[in-house]
Write a structure and sequence with these properties.
Structural class: mainly alpha
Oligomer: single chain
Helix content: over 70%
Number of strands: 0
Amino acid sequence: MRQQRLFLALFVENSANYFVATAQHIEKVIAMSSLKEITASPTYNPNRVLDAIIEKLQLKNDAALSRALEVAPPVISKIRHNTLPIGATILIRMHEISDFSIRELRELMAH
């Protein structure tokens, strides 16, 4: 009986973790599908999201941001000068280091 209860407890815990992970994955997929629409929008401004992350992480400049995001400094420069759109990979990395939700990052880019 004790083993059955332990198994049931583990099953419930794993199921809950699976559903949370699935919901997060679905949110990211939806975010990525509209990412192209955002970067093509006339209101797209990558500087807002870059500046918000710099402020939240209390970084000094774009070089510090590039180190935090683990990208080369020219990537940040190209994003800031609107010659390179923010792609899915860097958006997810921004989410991971800043704890901004994907939705918050998208809103920062689009408004």
